[in-house]
Write a structure and sequence with these properties.
It is a single chain. It is built from 2 helices and 2 strands. By secondary structure, it is mainly α. It has one domain. A two-stranded antiparallel sheet has the order 1-2. The longest helix has 21 residues. It starts with 7 loop residues before the first helix and ends with a helix.
Length: about 80
């Protein structure tokens, strides 16, 4: 019996939605990761496994992001 895989487009769209949800959550916290995106190499296969790439940010933004995460973890 063949195993059905999600259509590549659906898999990539789901990854894009995840990226967008993260960007929105960061924006609500007053943060923006300038290089947030999908890693194109991770979905170049017939059975894509897209990865959200957080990218690079300034040291100040990294500290701000850490503080937001710490506040959320303290709940």
């Amino acid at each position: 019996m063949a195993v059905e895989h999600p259509v590549a487009g659906d898999t990539i769209r789901a990854a894009e939605e995840s990226r967008d949800a993260l960007a929105s959550a960061l924006e609500r916290a007053g943060l923006r990761l300038p290089s947030l995106g999908l890693d194109p190499n991770s979905y170049a296969d017939a059975d894509p496994r897209p990865l959200v790439e957080l990218g690079r940010c300034s040291p100040l933004l990294a500290r701000e992001l850490a503080a937001v995460i710490e506040r959320g973890a303290a709940r």
